Structure formats: C-alpha cells, structure tokens
C-alpha cells in the first residue's frame, strides 16, 4: 500500500486544488489559523522554564548525560584559542 502512495503525486482538496501556485503560497504565508505548535511562539526562556517545571527529573537526567559526553573535552574547548595561539594542536578523539 505504501508503494502505491509513494508513486502518486500529492493532490489538494477544494478550494486549494483550483488555486495557482502563487495563490497557494500567498494563502499559506498570510493565514493566521491554525497556528503551528503555539508553544514555539513563546520566548525561549519561557518554554525552557515550563519544560523544567513539568519534567524536572527528565531535565536533570538529560543535563547529567550531556555533561558526561562533553565533560572530558570541556576544558579543551574553553581553552582552545589559548592553545591555538601557542601553536599546540588540539585533537578530539573520533
């Protein structure tokens, strides 16, 4: 069944099926409803604060996992410009 859909071109329903490409573009650029994922219109700090409040345990685990990943390399990344100025090459493991 998926193969059949893959071979078909996308079809629009009325009234969109009767619109030219320029009209479709103008319509979707100017519309105000529906809004795509309304939370994304909030300033980043507001969303981050809400996520932290709603998912405190998960946020703590995520940050701890990220620190384990970058921990050994963090000092090198912070001091990379100083090392570069002295001519010492910094290589990160693959």
Structure, explained:
- With 94 residues, this protein is an all-alpha fold.
- The chain has one domain (2-86).
- Helices cover 61% and strands 0% of the residues.
- It has 5 helices and no strands.
- The chain has helices spanning 2-7, 21-30, 44-54, 56-78, 80-86.
- α3 crosses α4 (56-78).
- The longest helix is centred in the C-terminal third of the chain and has 23 residues, at 56-78.
- It is elongated, with a radius of gyration of 25 Å.
- The relative contact order is 0.05.
- The mean pLDDT is 77.
Summarize the structure.
The chain is mainly α and 94 residues long.
Our measurement of the CA-to-CA distance between the termini, rounded to an integer number of angstroms, reads 42 Å
Number of helices: 5
Number of strands: 0
Low-confidence stretches: none
Characterize the overall form.
Answer: elongated
Q: What is the percent of helical residues?
A: 55-70%
Order of helices and strands: HHHHH
Gyration radius over CA: 25 Å
Domain count, please report it.
1
Largest sheet: none
Strand content: under 5%
| Average pLDDT reading | 77
Structural class: mainly alpha
Descriptive terms for the model:
94 residues; mainly alpha; 5 helices
SSE layout:
Elements (H helix, E strand, L loop, with lengths): L1 H6 L13 H10 L13 H11 L1 H23 L1 H7 L8
Helix pairs in contact: 3-4
């Amino acid at each position: 069944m998926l193969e059949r859909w893959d071979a078909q071109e996308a079809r629009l329903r009325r009234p969109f099926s009767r619109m030219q490409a320029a009209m479709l573009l103008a319509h979707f650029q100017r519309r105000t409803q529906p809004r795509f994922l309304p939370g994304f219109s909030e300033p980043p700090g507001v969303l981050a604060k809400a996520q932290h409040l709603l998912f405190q345990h998960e946020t703590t685990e995520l940050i701890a996992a990220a620190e384990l990943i970058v921990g050994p390399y963090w000092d090198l990344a912070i001091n990379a410009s100083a090392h570069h100025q002295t001519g010492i090459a910094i290589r990160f493991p693959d």
